[in-house]
Fold this sequence. Notes:
By secondary structure, the chain is mostly helical. The chain has one helix at 2-54.
Amino acid sequence: MEEQLVGLRAVVGEAESAQRAAEQQAAEVTSELAGAQTRNTTLQEAYEALLQRISPVPASPDNPVPGS
């Protein structure tokens, strides 16, 4: 009976260790994802700002499209 308890404690210890490792890995992945989302937002904003700078002004009654 004592041997079974020792074996069970070892299995529980391994499972707890694996759980801590998985939680740490999940935290790292979550952090990396947050960083990637921030970079993506920054890139999207930069792209949109660049388009605003290089795009022609939209046509309007005060600014008709040439040739129309």
